[in-house]
Write a structure and sequence with these properties.
This protein folds into two domains: 59 residues, DNA polymerase, domain 1 (Orthogonal Bundle), CATH 1.10.150.530; 271 residues, Aldolase class I (TIM Barrel, Alpha-Beta Barrel), CATH 3.20.20.70. It is elongated and about 70 Å long. It is an alpha/beta fold. The protein contains ten helices and twelve strands. Strand 6, helix 4 and strand 7 form a beta-alpha-beta unit. The strands form two sheets. A ten-stranded mixed sheet has the order 3-4-5-6-7-8-9-10-11-12, with helices on one face. The structure holds S-adenosyl-L-homocysteine (SAH). S-adenosyl-L-homocysteine binds next to strand 8 and strand 10.
């Protein structure tokens, strides 16, 4: 039997190793090798006695996901396609640091990780949603994506932000996401971690109970129920009102804000009225708005188009004029189909379940 050790807390690891390692410090040593030192196997853990390495190798694996493909794009982003132990495929994206500021302070790279292999939410504008539901990833599988990207891209602890914005809905997998956040804390401080949700209200309330909370991002996209439900069916379960009640109760540390993500789709949610409705909503909580012009996919998202740049800028200007802090995210990783809403864990539509294109135009 080969049980993965990645994803175990230190006490759990100590318990797993106890029959093979008499010294109590071995668990911390193995933990350090698996995380800080990015080891893939026990053979790499050169300061463990050889018999111990062999004994561990018979019963356990580190449990890193296997890299099946890497797709770099011109802008420096790179998509990693992973194969998990049961054959499930997920993707993670490495995003380089923004260019250095004039002051010379280097910024951090970002790793975008998946929390589920697929997604049940079926948002009309998201390719992952076209795959249908997938299983929850374990904490080890979530942490593993980060560790492999760190190893391959050659960055150490405290050099990255981690965003849970890959495949899946993190707050439908709160237990494992929460455990992954605990394990990540040694590498990435919670203030440099962001969990993004389509609006799973009980999940938001659950995450709010954590002592060390990540940043919260909410994929809002539309401020009014009728349109939001058409674009994001989950809104039928938790309405905009319920969502914002939960956001108003989200415990924010001083100076921190909730991020509201808005995917802009031509002639669907890019009108001045939509901007005004959004700005009324955004002002209810300390927030910043990220406008994400739709990443198109004629193959997967037929009929949906990105608004013209001027339209995006005008929408942003309307929000800004009403006092909303707004940033347009001209996506990185487009060349690698690694941008927001483009992760599907496979290279071509192939055998995927075809869902009829939802009609979202009014
Ligand atoms: N399920 C979570 C985590 C995924 S985050 C959530 O919805 O927040 C993925 C982000 O990409 C979301 O903000 C989503 O709104 C955005 N997105 C999805 N499809 C997109 C597309 N085609 N173009 C641009 N952004 C998209």
């Amino acid at each position: 039997m080969t049980t993965p050790l990645l994803g175990l807390s230190l006490p759990e690891l100590a318990q797993a190793l106890a029959p093979f390692a008499r010294e109590r410090f071995r668990a911390a040593q193995v933990q350090r090798w698996m995380t800080e030192r990015r080891a893939r196997s026990f053979d790499e853990m050169t300061d463990l006695p050889a018999p111990l390495r062999a004994a561990l190798g018979e019963r356990f694996v580190v449990g890193l996901p296997e890299v099946e493909a890497r797709t770099p794009s011109e802008d420096g982003a790179e998509k990693f396609l992973f194969r998990l132990a049961d054959g499930a495929k997920v993707e993670a994206v490495f995003i380089p640091a923004p260019r250095r500021r004039a002051s010379g302070t280097g910024e951090r790279v970002t790793v975008c990780v998946s929390s589920q292999a697929g997604c049940a939410l079926a948002c009309a504008f998201c390719v992952t949603g076209r795959m249908g539901a997938g299983r929850n990833l374990t904490a080890g599988e979530i942490l593993g994506q980060y560790l492999v990207v760190a190893r391959e891209k050659g960055f150490g602890p405290r050099a990255a932000n981690v965003v849970f914005m890959g495949m899946g809905e993190p707050l439908l997998n709160v237990a494992n996401v929460s455990r992954a956040l605990d394990l990540l804390a040694a590498e990435v401080s919670p203030r440099r971690t962001t969990v993004s949700t389509a609006g799973i209200v009980p999940g938001i309330r659950e995450l709010a109970k954590r002592e060390r909370r990540p940043n919260l991002a909410v994929s809002l996209t539309a401020a009014e129920d009728a349109l939001r439900t058409r674009l994001m069916p989950i809104n039928a379960q938790w309405s905009v009102r319920e969502l914002f009640e939960a956001l108003e109760e989200w415990p924010l540390e001083t100076g921190r804000r909730v991020t509201l993500e808005v995917v802009l789709i031509a002639d669907v949610n890019d009108s001045p009225e939509a901007a005004r409705a959004l700005s009324r909503l955004a002002r209810r909580v300390p927030s910043k708005v990220n406008l994400i012009p739709l990443n198109e996919s004629p193959e997967w998202l037929p009929g949906l188009a990105r608004p013209a740049d001027e339209k995006v800028n005008a929408f942003g200007a309307l929000l800004a004029a009403s006092g909303v802090d707004v940033t347009v995210r001209w996506s990185k990783g487009l060349g690698a189909a690694a941008a927001c809403g483009q992760l599907k864990g496979r290279e071509t539509p192939g055998r995927v379940l075809r869902v009829p294109a939802p009609s979202v135009r009014s």
